[in-house]
Amino acid sequence: LCWIMVIGSEGLEILKKRLPDAILIGAKKSGTRALLTFISIHPNVSAANPEIHFFDKYYHLGIDWYRSQMPFATQNQIVIEKTPKYLVDPKVAQRVYNMNKNVKLIVILRNPISRAISEFVQTQWKQKRNIFDVEEQARRFNRMLYQNRRGNLTIRKNWSVIRNGIYVKHVKNWLKYFPLESFIFINGDNLVRNPHQEMKKLQEFLAIKPIITERNFVMTTQKRGFPCIRLKPGSDRIKCLNDQKGRPHPKINPSVFQDLDQFYKPFNKEFFELIDQEPFW
Ligand code: A3P
């Protein structure tokens, strides 16, 4: 089934499954779900809810399979899918280019240190470790983080938790196929503090009416410290992310934090030069 007919606000409408116009490619643990949830309330957006993993995992199933995974959309809607793995998998950029060289690419990035801790916490949850013992978590993080190189402790940059945050490396690969104008870089830290600012940027980039504004966001006790979105300004209907988003983080000790800061500093600098923007962090 690839199209349906419905009676909508504009009369009879045909909804079709189409390949995406925009893809949210990452970075993992930077607020990708929040960004997709927020943009999904826009009437001119139709977003696939699950992560499709077509270009990294299911490519062999073919483009018709990919299309079949898309949500139904009217002609006036932009179709979006998100799979945060795409940013860091070196095969993906060329495959996306082969599908549509004009596709819009959405990247949301968070300070790589908190991103790394967030990903580490997620792996601990998946392994069903006792994640509420934050001190044990911090010790475990340190054990994974360092390697002994001829008597020196250095950061294990091949640990995916660390490597995924070397944004310059991953974005450079994408830039082999797409010009800088194909991308928007959303600040994941600011999406928590000032979500409307990031949503304004995103709506502009997607060339849709900027109807998601400050009035859509609300802090509830249900989701302390993280904004939830009102489906319409003034409406009581509110959507928050589930408990797997906004997990408690272990407290990393200051010297480890400093090592990570030193480690990421040159990569961050190179990254913001590459995309020609003021540093977010
Ligand atoms: P933590 O759970 O480590 O705090 P992703 O969706 O890409 O996996 O990113 C998860 C992160 O999104 C969370 O990491 C959280 O910090 C962040 N986030 C941003 N806005 C959020 C929101 N409104 N509600 C919940 N989490 C949000």
From TrEMBL:
<dbReference type="InterPro" id="IPR027417">
    <property type="entry name" value="P-loop_NTPase"/>
</dbReference>
<keyword id="KW-1015">Disulfide bond</keyword>
<keyword id="KW-0732">Signal</keyword>
<feature type="binding site">
    <location>
        <begin position="245"/>
        <end position="249"/>
    </location>
    <ligand>
        <name>3'-phosphoadenylyl sulfate</name>
    </ligand>
</feature>
<feature type="disulfide bond">
    <location>
        <begin position="228"/>
        <end position="240"/>
    </location>
</feature>
<dbReference type="Pfam" id="PF00685">
    <property type="entry name" value="Sulfotransfer_1"/>
</dbReference>
<dbReference type="InterPro" id="IPR000863">
    <property type="entry name" value="Sulfotransferase_dom"/>
</dbReference>
<feature type="active site" description="For sulfotransferase activity">
    <location>
        <position position="29"/>
    </location>
</feature>
<feature type="binding site">
    <location>
        <position position="110"/>
    </location>
    <ligand>
        <name>3'-phosphoadenylyl sulfate</name>
    </ligand>
</feature>
<dbReference type="InterPro" id="IPR037359">
    <property type="entry name" value="NST/OST"/>
</dbReference>
<protein>
    <submittedName>
        <fullName>Heparan sulfate glucosamine 3-O-sulfotransferase 6</fullName>
    </submittedName>
</protein>
<keyword id="KW-0325">Glycoprotein</keyword>
<feature type="domain" description="Sulfotransferase">
    <location>
        <begin position="20"/>
        <end position="264"/>
    </location>
</feature>
<feature type="binding site">
    <location>
        <position position="118"/>
    </location>
    <ligand>
        <name>3'-phosphoadenylyl sulfate</name>
    </ligand>
</feature>
<feature type="binding site">
    <location>
        <begin position="29"/>
        <end position="33"/>
    </location>
    <ligand>
        <name>3'-phosphoadenylyl sulfate</name>
    </ligand>
</feature>
<dbReference type="GO" id="GO:0008467">
    <property type="term" value="F:[heparan sulfate]-glucosamine 3-sulfotransferase activity"/>
</dbReference>
<keyword id="KW-0808">Transferase</keyword>
